[in-house]
Amino acid sequence: MAEIFDPIPEKVKDFEIDERILAIADEAEADCAEVFARADRTARINGERVLRAFINNKVSAACLSGTTGYGYDDLGRDTLDKVYAEVFGAEDALVRHTFVSGTHALTTALFGVLRAGDKMVSLTGAPYDTLEEVVGIRGKGNGSLADFGVNYDQVDLLPDGTPDIAEIFNKVKDAKVAYIQRSRGYSLRPTLTVDDIAEIVKTVKNANPKAIVMVDNCYGEFVETKDPIHAGADLIIGSLIKNPGAGIAETGGYIAGRKDLVELCSYRLTCVGMGKEVGCTLNQNKSMYQGLFFAPEVVANAVKTAAFTARLMSKLGFECLPAYNEKRGDIITTVLMKNPENLIAFCQGVQKGSPIDSYVTPEPWDMPGYDSQVIMAAGAFNMGASIELSADAPLREPFAAYVQGGLTFPTGRMGILTAVQEMYDKHCLKLF
């Protein structure tokens, strides 16, 4: 019987990728087979967890509609909080489109639970760049935690980038908040797995049972089958334009954890006495529900893209962290680009493989909240969405590109291939 359709070509020619690059990419993808299978298994388990939370909390068609004004009796908003709480193993959650970023959600949580004279200790070295001014360790300090009388200390990481457990035990004895950043930020340290976080939590609670363990969970949701609340953390915070929004949620963030702490956080988002009871949703509910529903599968695609990137770039002579087959705690792959020319070419190539603004050429610029120029390749449906394929980096040593996201593996793969092709075209790498 004759074929009804033409066979699908083995290689896409339209992107004008060098045949040698395609051949190396095929080898890299084949090497990742076991990693991909593991990502699929994780997505299945997490997908079932999310579905169970939807069913248990009786998500209805009415939940998908929004409210205006004060937002009293917003069924969708209140139910979404319950769904998030169940998914992450928390007593309560605060999920709102009015969180403008992960940093905003983290700031709300910190100001929610800390008071003048309290002490915050960062257990994973200095916090992410955009949080430094919030804490008050950089910038003018107006309105920072330091400005409000909150004391700050940190536990530097060990030379190998892992947490200093012994020093954590010593420094949290008088701390109100023990702060953990799960992902690496713009550093080269390993991302923390949930098991790593469990060890830190145990140490903190042994030293100071009253300490509030707060985890910046950005980039880590659904990478594993458990989250930090399952490991004993008191609060987790994240952004909906990263993993849990799946590229569908248009904005927003979440705080989840102990009910009393979530309530305190809600007072900082709205006002004391009203907290979670107000806040209209302006037709954002559907995208937040749908994003969470798709998140396990989308995160799996991002993990596949990350592993593929690590394997391909390592084959081309670039060190990648983590290695493609290492256990992951987040969706980020760090590629050490060796010099600014390589870094810029790679990011510009990722942009060329983006579905949105592919014709735009990103350049380093003075981005608010950062102390170095930053280049960002981000051709995304939702501006700044890190679950969509992007590559960004500060223009400073060691000139590392931080690659994250990938809504689908085929498009994530092609975005990386266009990056490699751009590097080759600009004589930043050799093919043998």
Overview of this protein structure:
The radius of gyration is 22 Å and the shape is globular. The mean pLDDT is 94. It contains eleven helices and twelve strands. Helix 2 packs across helix 3 and helix 6 packs parallel to helix 7. It is α/β, with parallel strands linked by helices and 432 residues long. The protein has two domains: 157 residues, Aspartate Aminotransferase, domain 1; 246 residues, 3-Layer(aba) Sandwich (Aspartate Aminotransferase, domain 2). Helices cover 38% and strands 12% of the residues.
Key traits:
single chain, 432 residues, alpha/beta, Aspartate Aminotransferase, domain 1, 2 domains, five-stranded antiparallel sheet, 12 strands, 12% strand
State the end-to-end distance.
43 Å
The portion of residues forming beta strands comes to 5-15%
- Assign the structural class, choosing from mainly alpha, mainly beta, alpha/beta, alpha+beta, or little secondary structure: alpha/beta
Strand/helix succession:
HHHEHEHEHEHEEEHHEEHEEEH
The value of Rg in angstroms is 22 Å
Estimate the mean pLDDT confidence: 94
CATH superfamily of the largest domain: Type I PLP-dependent aspartate aminotransferase-like (Major domain)
Number of strand elements: 12
Main sheet attributes: strand count, strand direction, barrel closure: 7 strands, mixed
| Number of H- or I-type helical stretches | 11
How much helical structure, as a percent, in the residues? 25-40%
User: What is the third-level CATH name, the topology of the largest domain?
Assistant: Aspartate Aminotransferase, domain 2
- Unreliable residue stretches: none
Shape: globular
- Highest CATH level, the class of the largest domain: Alpha Beta
CATH A-level architecture of the largest domain: 3-Layer(aba) Sandwich
